[in-house]
Write a structure and sequence with these properties.
Number of strands: 11
Largest sheet: 6 strands, parallel
Order of helices and strands: HHEHEHEEHEEHEEHEHEHEHHHHHH
Shape: globular
Strand content: 5-15%
Strand order of the largest sheet: 4-5-7-9-10-11
Distance between the termini: 32 Å
Radius of gyration: 22 Å
Length: about 425
């Protein structure tokens, strides 16, 4: 039995306040969808079975290059983070797994596994960190890690990733995510070809250590922290890496790691087509890698990404099981509330994609009827599927209105009283 920090009675009381309205809204939406030939019960079951992992680092207050402003009751370490993650899953019933980041979350593996089990949480992909220096490490990553000109620095970065694999094996993870900040800030600073060769050689050493049932995810990012060039700058390079390393290597798509107005949904389609889409880091952005809440800026883009994913589902592509993870930094909101909202927005995009009239869409595409093809997508996107999301949560034991239940619980006040206040400091995401 999971150790809930929010009383189930409180959730039941909050749900009772909203049950009559939800019942009416669900029935009305069901009638509307039925006229379109869509069974609302099928959609609700599919949504209830869709899960997204939350990032351990996401429950702490983030920051910018300029400053970080701590929030009340910030987690003191990984075990507090897991408590916060459990609250998100309890209310949404959508986030049963947590993605850890090493060395930030380094702890005894047995204790981590026991804590996760007690809270009813599992562990998703484990993330390595060679983009910042850890206390006591011999070599600095200031000028790179897996692609560094110094062999000792590269070996240290490889060893860190091997350690992440061992931690992941002990807690039940099945994937390693590798993102590096390697690159250059000045023309001529780095030899592009040699740096990429060094990176591939380092990644090959990591790949060899993967258990047979694991996946390796690599991320591309066009800039930051290096601004002139990055080692894995785009999806094409990322695809070359996955192809070069082998069948257990896949591309991870972070929605914020692209230039503004990039057609991310087409990138998703291409990687699916050639069997190398490993999964997602969901977030949203206005200008760059803003790491804003999913769906807060461009919910239509999120829907279009899921339109590609549902298209694959319905075509029955074999062995397609992408990893779904959130990767956000919360600077001005309660991180738990932002992650609750993001999990729900991701499910919303999925539900909307499920009600697209695929037969009509294919017909309009074949007839080159651009207007009606677009309208077919927009008709599904404009549908208010909130009753489906709320009903899926309620049936699983979650909250009809998870933010309202969270605020009514007083959880943030409770942990603020238990956890020492953080001190504001310089820039940095955690």
């Amino acid at each position: 039995m999971a150790e809930f920090r929010i009383a189930q009675d409180l959730i039941a009381t909050e749900n009772d306040k909203r049950a009559t309205a939800l019942n009416a809204d669900y029935e009305a939406l069901g009638a509307t969808l039925d006229r379109r030939g869509v069974d609302i019960e099928v959609i609700t079951r599919r949504v209830a079975e869709f899960f997204v992992a939350v990032p351990s680092w996401g429950v702490g207050t983030g920051g910018t290059r300029f400053a970080r402003f701590p929030g009340a009751g910030e987690p003191r370490g990984i075990f507090d983070k897991l408590d916060d993650c459990a609250v998100i899953d309890q209310l949404t019933q959508a986030t049963p797994n947590v993605s850890l980041h090493i060395p930030w979350d380094k702890a005894d593996a047995k204790e981590l596994k026991a804590k996760g089990d007690a809270l009813g949480l599992g562990f998703d992909a484990i993330n390595s960190n060679t983009f910042s220096d850890a206390p006591g490490q011999a070599h600095s990553y200031k000028y790179g890690s897996l692609s560094h000109t110094d062999a000792g620095t590269r070996a240290q970065a490889v060893e860190h990733n091997l350690e992440c694999i061992e931690i992941g094996r002990a807690i039940g993870s099945k994937a390693l995510t590798v993102w590096i900040g390697d690159g250059s800030n000045f023309p001529g600073q780095s030899n592009f070809t040699r740096a990429f060769e060094r990176y591939l050689a380092s990644m090959a050493d990591i790949y060899k250590a993967l258990p047979d049932d694991w996946k390796l995810f690599t991320e591309h990012k066009m800039y930051e922290p290096a601004f002139y060039s990055t080692i894995v700058q785009d999806w094409g390079t990322n695809y070359l890496i996955a192809q070069t390393l082998g069948p257990k290597a896949y591309c991870l798509v972070d929605l914020g790691h692209h230039a503004p107005n990039t057609n991310i949904e087409m990138i998703v389609a291409r990687l699916i087509q050639f069997g190398k889409l490993g999964g997602f880091h969901f977030n949203d952005s206005k200008y760059g890698d803003d790491d804003l809440d999913a769906g807060v800026i461009d919910p239509y883009r999120l829907f279009l990404v899921f339109n590609e994913l549902v298209d694959v589902e319905q075509r029955g592509v074999n062995d397609f099981k992408p990893a779904h993870m959130i990767d956000q930094s919360h600077n001005v909101t309660d991180p738990i509330e932002s992650l609750i909202n993001s999990a729900n927005e991701i499910r919303r995009a999925y539900a909307q994609a499920l009600i697209v009239d695929r037969k009509a869409l294919e017909g309009y595409q074949n007839d080159n009827d651009a207007l009606m093809a677009s309208e077919t997508l927009k008709r599904a996107y404009r549908a208010d599927v909130e009753p489906i999301l709320a009903e899926a949560r309620r049936r699983a034991g979650g909250a009809i209105d998870p933010i309202a239940a969270y605020r009514a619980s007083g959880y943030r006040r409770q942990v603020a009283a238990e956890r020492p206040a953080s001190v504001a400091g310089g820039g940095g995401i955690i």
